[in-house]
Design a protein that fits this description.
Chain lengths: ~160, ~150
């Protein structure tokens, strides 16, 4: 958990705080970040490259607002699959281009028997349920039971923010 | 969807093609624009507009919360309907609650906790249980099969 973060120094953390909200939309964005922090641009780029290579940066690019793009329906599909098969099944489901997040999570028996979560987005609920049926077909008999939990209200949404 | 600026073909190519792989070099927008057959200032103008119109929530690096030393979990509560709004207020009052969604299920409130220290997750859950008198089901991820977040514009 803290193995990676222990490798971050104060300068890395300042770069994270300066860029977590986005890169400047100017011709030389890393140069602009460097100027803002009083750092050398080559140092900023080398540090960000190291964080990208180490997985501290998942990726760099556009983060679309799926709701604004017309993906109004959001269904959290939850699945009860055999524990011994979950890594294989999880990878298969995570590979689908319409699944945005896929996680193995603990069951809470007997109340909650689902151990695999896959977030499915669609323009409407029919599209979401069609996609979930495609997942069910892929899983075959490994799908012991599943449900779709549709969201109908956002009660809170703030971005994750780190402080240096 | 914004009505002011309908998306054209180039906007769609930008949204679909730039969800990762943005380079780290001194003039990255020029490099990307070149690959897409666009002028650099056209790409920058379009990204600015897509951000202003809210079609992109962000453009830049996406950091890995846990690798930065933070902790995340997903938790759920079964809230009686007549107390729903009051419980939502109690839950949302915690700064550690990053997202909270109402979902159609017996477990009808689902929220993400984000803390700087792992130990803080259990503390916040205990606080919410004490304040609401309701059981919080903690469902931290055991394994992630996240490959890509791809939305077609």
């Amino acid at each position: 958990m803290s193995e990676s973060s222990d490798l971050l120094d104060e300068t890395d953390r300042r770069i994270i705080v300066a860029t977590q909200g986005g890169l400047p939309l100017v011709a030389e964005p890393y140069g602009a970040v460097a100027d803002e922090l009083g750092l050398d641009v080559d140092d900023v780029m080398a540090r960000m490259q190291r964080m990208l290579d180490g997985g501290l940066i998942r990726r760099i690019g556009a983060v679309p607002n799926h709701y604004a793009l017309g993906y109004r329906a959001n269904g959290m599909s939850v699945w009860d699959v055999p524990d011994e098969d979950i890594s294989e099944i999880g990878k298969m489901v995570g590979d689908l281009d319409f699944v945005s997040h896929c996680y193995h999570r603990p069951r809470h028996l007997p109340y909650w028997s689902y151990n695999l979560f896959a977030m499915v987005h669609g323009r409407d609920r029919d599209e979401v349920s069609d996609k979930v049926e495609r997942i069910a077909k892929l899983m075959g008999i490994k799908d012991r039971r599943h449900e779709i939990l549709y969201s109908h209200r956002i009660l809170k949404k703030t971005g994750l923010r780190f402080t240096a | 969807m914004t009505e002011k600026h309908p998306l054209d073909e180039i906007d769609r190519r930008i949204i679909n093609g730039l969800q990762g792989g943005f380079p780290i070099c001194s003039s990255p927008y020029a490099a990307v624009a070149h690959d897409m057959g666009l002028a650099e200032d056209d790409l920058l103008r379009r990204l600015q507009r897509l951000r202003t119109d809210g079609l992109l929530s962000r453009f830049g690096p996406m950091y890995h919360a846990e690798k930065l030393g933070g902790a995340l979990t997903l938790a759920a509560i079964s809230v009686p309907e007549d107390r729903y709004d009051a419980v939502a207020e109690q839950v949302n009052a915690h700064a550690e609650v990053a997202h909270n969604y109402a979902r159609e299920h017996q477990l009808n409130m689902w929220f993400v906790l984000a803390t700087e220290q792992l130990s803080r997750i259990d503390e916040v859950i205990a606080e919410i249980e004490a304040e609401t008198g309701l059981k919080v089901y903690n469902m931290p991820k055991k394994e992630e099969f996240f490959i890509g977040l791809r939305f077609e514009a």
